[in-house]
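Box 3.1. Reading complex inputs
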Amino acid sequence: MILVVLISILFFGGVIAWLSEGLDSKFPRVIALTAVVIDLLVMLTLVGADAGDSGWIVQLNAQWMPRFGISFHLAADGLSVLMMVLTAFLGAVAIGSAWDEITEKTGFFYFNLLWTLAGVIGVFTALDLFLFFFFWEVMLIPMYFIIAIWGHENKNYAAMKFFIFTQVTGMLMLISILALAYFHYVQFGWFSFDYFDLLKVSTSSAIEMWIMLGFFVAFSTKLPSFPFHSWLPDAHSQAPTAGSVILAGVLLKTGAYGLIRFAIPLFPEASMTFAPFAMTLAVISILYCAKVAFAQTDIKRLIAYTSVSHMGFVLLGIYAWNEQALQGAVMTMLAHGLSAAALFMLAGGLQHRIHTRDMDHMGGFWAKVPRLSFVALFFSVAALGMPGLGNFVGEFLALLGAFKANIGLTVAAAFGLIFASVYSLWVIQKVFHGAYRNSDFDDSHLHDLSRREMFYFGAMMIGLIWMGMYPQSFLDLSAGTIMQLLNETGQVLFAVGQ
Amino acid sequence: MTMTFDDLLPLMPLLIVTATSVLAMLMIGVRRSYIVTASITIAGLLVATLVAISMMDWTNQQITPLLIIDQYSLLFTVLVCASAMLIAILSFSYFFELDDHKEEFFLLLTIATIGAIVMVSSNHFVSTVLGLETLSMSLYGMIAYPMHSKESAKYPLEASVKYLVLSAAASGFILFGMALIYAQTGTLSFASLTDLPMAADSLGDGYSIVALLMITAGMAFKLSLAPFHMWTPDVYEGSPIPATAYLATIGKAAMFVVLLRFIRASDALSFDSIVTVLTLIAAASMLVGNLLALLQDNLKRILAYSSIAHMGYLLLALVASHYATGTLAVEAVTFYLIAYVITSLGAFGVASVISSSEKEFDSIKEYRGLFWRNPWLASIFIAMLLSLAGIPLTVGFIGKFYIFLAGVESDLWMLLAVLVLGSGIGLYYYLRIVYRMLMTEKHKIPYRVGGVESVSAYGVLAILLFLLLLFGVYPAPIMSLVAAASAFI
């Protein structure tokens, strides 16, 4: 029941926020923040709760469309809770970043923001594949609105590209889901879309591979991984700051979550056959997108490409499919969620102040805005994987685990860490060091970070330091889920003798 | 054959609609009153809808060899009557300022509805032709209706003549095909096509493949399936919006039910050539409809091309009905038709609300910034467009789900690939309209409508939106209804 409450608070909070605009254009943001904070507090009661024998902390199963065995099945385990907390936390941060930036049509903006978050929480908790797909698509529409209405100069193109990429690959996933449900029908005589029922379906290896690919394409588009990543730089550079925060911090993680929860456990054999290809794609993502990031002059596009590069470590870790690698992938998801969100907020903040994203026009900002520059340095260093901060733990574990699975690819992937240092420090040098130039823009609004901004950047810094210094507190939460998934797939693989 | 009172009872919806048309005609003869004629029509159609709903549980009867009144035909009778009623309400405000006699439009609408009810209940060639021609004849009049008005809608006469000529040619094809089948088999009833006394003269022999192809081509024309779709955009564009809505929803749905019954009863899909032809038509429709819609700037033309694509999706499910176990594919066709009717009515309804017979707003430019000028209307329109695109929370998504499931179950992978491709292209032009509505204006354009804005038209849109969301979020009741009805096919 608590999961329904979590989703409903966001759904209804969104509606109320929209309606409240009629009274005062400042109400929606207050209502939105209240709804997200309440959600976050409710979620915190689930953190570390005893999962019991089933492995699920809370579960809810109600009939929805009995004709096809579709049920309204929500459940949360350690991994889901971790992802939900990240969602709500970044949701609150996103509202903070939109606080002053969004001045027009505020009601509809916060409505869309909350509905996106509601869809994401649905994705992280759905255990019926139809329901999962339902939420998967539901979170797209409000995100489309956020980019299309409050975006920048080329928003129509970016919003359209984002929507079409994710929708078309989503349809491939739908076909895979239906094929799986149909094979369940063939084997057991009734339709079911339930996760636990579908885990029992066995198909011939060729068919299993095709069905798995449908899932993989959808998830790796969302992740995104090379070669499906090209929507991300456009979406990020055009989206308003809050949109980028949600996109980078939360939406990308749904792809990784889908791989961990669905793509591999449902098709262990096909996934293990496919793993070398997936890991190769991951390495290409890491190296190629790091290289492309270095060639950007638009600061948001640069951060977007680094996102793809970092998510490559997640993909690498997932397909290595052992405990360390998976823990690394989850840790990278969390840490990258915070660091990428913070970097997008900084880029958005700069754009808000000087109305350009072109790094060629920037330089020497350290003297002018020291607090902002320090924060930027902190998160750049976090993103490049400095020991002591969360990203290092995640990427290190991912590489450690991947090393057991495939030495060659891991060695290649490790070069990504070097590239990351190069582009991160290059940005710092270009934007914040050197002589201050303001010939290309009007710097009358170039203020340093306000107290409110410092507050939420501070909160994210604490998060990253905590992850870096005491990662065990996070690893413990996801360990149960990961061990169970490994056990289940291990049994299947053992049975077929791989 | 003599008819008893017991035979008349199941025909109640048909008789009520017929009585409505007679009453409306007499009323016009006695005293012309727009509002009274409209009220009689709307009330008659409402009563017919309710009676058909109440009959659904217990009626399953063949009335003369011509008509079958079972749960399936009643389901579509309800759909036809209810849609006709909603279109009548929409046309009331649309034609309010017409500079001509306005009352007869309702008469034509009611007579067309009689034709549609006969079509959805027919399992005999004779009743098919009777219903089809009644429907088409009335539609010619409905399309050309505002032709005497000084500032009429664009080209209604051209559209009507175009539809008349091409539709008559298609009817000719259908009739020729029927004649060939009769010459071959000696029967005109669907049910006896596969159950012939002499095995030697069965449907597969002689020229009956040609006959089946001719009937398919004629019906494909009426459904505007590629490559028989050429008339669709012009006729849609030239007609007054209520007539377009009627043609696009009831006209297509009734024809598809006949096609479904005919294909299932004659087992035409057991011939490989028919399967090949239908597969090609389906693939061509999905691609042609979606690709050509990309180039349009006129809302009615976009919806015309999108309807071509949607008919292609339906045809996929029809092909699947031969391979799928159970009634799943028939259910897919049925559910998708219901979804399509609700959604198309909503889309045309929005256009109708802001237009009138004197001034139509059918260029997508007119919808620029509508979301900020009239959020409710724009939200309804966005919901309808997303439903056409098959996005969750809407009935269109559940419809797509059915089609996908039917396709997967029948291993129609090529058609499914085309469906994914077509839907992907389709997203672009639906989102284009959505984006127009979301654009902000530099100069504030006041919200304006072509004619009168009536509360009742908004009521229609509210009902359609409610159904769209209800069937999209909680479809279990309608699913079981569709499953029960589909067992009769």
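In summary: The radius of gyration of chain A is 22 Å.
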